Amino acid sequence: MATNPTSMFNTSSNVLSVNIGTSIGSMVRRPQMRRTLKVQETLFSNRSFVPKTTSTFPRKFGTWAARFSLKSSLDLKLPFKPLRLIHMENKESSSSRGALIVLEGLDRCGKTSQSGRLYKYLEEQGHSVESWRFPDRNTGVGQMISSYLANQSQLDDHAIHLLFSANRWEKRVSLVHWIDLFVSELYLSIPVSLMEEKLKSGTTLIVDRYSYSGVAFSYAKGLDIGWCKAPEIGLLAPDLVVYLDISPEKAAERGGYGDERYEQLEFQKKVAGSYLALRDSSWKVIDATLSIEDIEKKLREVVLDCMKACHKGKPLSQLWPSSV
Ligand SMILES: Nc1ncnc2c1ncn2[C@@H]1O[C@H](COP(=O)(O)OP(=O)(O)OP(=O)(O)O)[C@@H](O)[C@H]1O
Ligand SMILES: Cc1cn([C@H]2C[C@H](O)[C@@H](COP(=O)(O)O)O2)c(=O)[nH]c1=O
């Protein structure tokens, strides 16, 4: 039995498969479970809901329950058999999509300044673009992270690592799509990947820090690199990672340095070493000690190239590109 939820689903096709029988059966019998079901389905979200390797007992029970519930309890005359698969073709072509651009680097290297400038430029050029950042401190998980970074709370290194990762997973899925199953109170939620959906609809995402920060900072604390990467597996892989390269000493001279937990020279030196271990073919390195304007120019070049490739049909992929 697969242990990684994402590995249980067919991610290569643009088809959504929903085992309606099982879901309706459970929902009709125990309406209070509807919320739970949605959460479970959200956790297992991807292109197909039906795990291929799960035990058959719950599925068969769900089938029976669906038939029993729908025929006997409610005596509903539904225009479909209780158990069937819905195949929803995703009309959005994978050929013309936005790019997932990630900015990485040591604290104070200039990511936020460059994200803002890049966003403004792309928007002015008429591109559909959004600026994201991790940690997203607006969510419940993000607030715990923020309090930890501000030294207002203490957490085990593994625990904070998992919170950072959870903060990325919670931005991956949004429950915005619902299918009306012809019965007023019965709704089946279709989890939609927030990030994937945006990219497929043509929006380019500029993301200030991503999984690479997650691994680099925890690995710098001495945690096992494979362990650090594991919770990131299955998140979308960036199309481009721009590493803003600055020495820890120079970064420490910049304004605002030292405000948060990790902004300490010796630790940042270790983080710089961790980043080196993470570089792969999706990375471009830009000298972050250049003027803001020069960095901006170089950044635009690599970003526009990447956006062109995505527009032409470069497929989306998942982390982690190399073996853990
Ligand atoms: N190229 C640059 N040259 C000199 N100073 C810069 C440059 N880029 C940014 N700065 C300054 O460095 C400081 C940090 O910049 P910024 O907030 O953009 O970095 P950051 O990487 O987002 O930081 P953090 O990771 O700590 O949030 C700011 O005071 C900013 O004005
Ligand atoms: C995403 C992420 C971040 N961190 C660290 C890196 C920084 O020191 C802070 C975030 O600060 P910012 O000013 O908001 O960029 O958190 C981390 O350790 N793990 C992560 O996944």
TrEMBL record:
A molecular-function term among this protein's GO annotations: dTMP kinase activity
Entry annotated with the keyword Nucleotide-binding: yes
EC number(s) from the headed UniProt entry: 2.7.4.9
Keyword Manganese on entry: no
Domain (Thymidylate kinase-like) ranges: 103-298
Alphabetical list of CDD domains matching this protein: TMPK
Coiled-coil parts of chain: none
GO biological process: dTDP biosynthetic process; dTTP biosynthetic process; dUDP biosynthetic process
A GO term from the CC aspect: cytosol
Alphabetized InterPro entries for the sequence: P-loop_NTPase, Thymidylate_kin-like_dom, Thymidylate_kin_CS, Thymidylate_kinase
Pathway entry: Pyrimidine metabolism; dTTP biosynthesis
Enzyme class: transferase
Keywords on record: ATP-binding, Kinase, Nucleotide biosynthesis, Nucleotide-binding, Transferase
Pfam families from the UniProt entry: Thymidylate_kin
Record-stated family: Belongs to the thymidylate kinase family.
Protein name: dTMP kinase
Lineage, top ranks: Eukaryota, Viridiplantae, Streptophyta, Embryophyta, Tracheophyta
